[in-house]
Amino acid sequence: MQEYISRLRRAQEIRVLEKAQTRAATVAFRDDMLMSSPPSCSAADFKRPRLRRCLFDPATIDWTHSSHVGGGLDRHIWKVWFGAHGLYTLEVFWDANQPDFHHYFAAQRECHNAALPQMLETAI
Predict the structure, then answer these.
(1) What are the φ and ψ backbone dihedral angles of 17, each rounded to 5 degrees?
(2) Fewer CB atoms near the end CB (10 Å): N or C, the chain?
(3) DSSP assignment of 89-112
């Protein structure tokens, strides 16, 4: 698996970033508002979805009962408990910043993928 990831990374570094990709990297994809109320559902919000902050404090993760689920090219996934709040999934990404080579930014894409269902649920 490690060799596969290394080869894929090397191949991605060869491709040049396109203008559209460079512009997309500058668009905000996270919001500092807490997930304590329904998200905004305007047309503009659907064009540029932003994931709001989780209500739980990462310092309250119970690592003794947590377990590593798996990992891959862009992230590792853990089953975690935030105190007594129950089981959740925590994704830890390899890249904290937008890569400067031809590859999607996994954290940005995942934030969009998580924000959209919340907005759809509120809109419906």
Answers:
(1) -70, 140
(2) C
(3) EEEEES-SS--SSSS--HHHHHHH
